[in-house]
Structure prediction request, 68 residues.
Amino acid sequence: MRYFDFERVAHDAGIAAEDLAKLCARVRKEFPRDDMLYELHVLRACMAVRDRIASLEEILGDGAPVTK
Prediction:
């Protein structure tokens, strides 16, 4: 079952398939058994890139909090 269409948002944000796979793998580690939270967090990360709130590099970085 799919909860969110994060792939469309990733496409709109210009996130390459390879980078989306990296993002998905990172988020899956945080939510190994909860598909809904996994998809929600991937969606929110893609939306942040699309809306230029954060860069993909910041999201896929070392996990340190991003401050502006």
Notes: The longest helix spans residues 35-50. The chain has a mean pLDDT of 92. The helical segments are 6-13, 17-30, 35-50, 56-60. The radius of gyration is 11 Å.
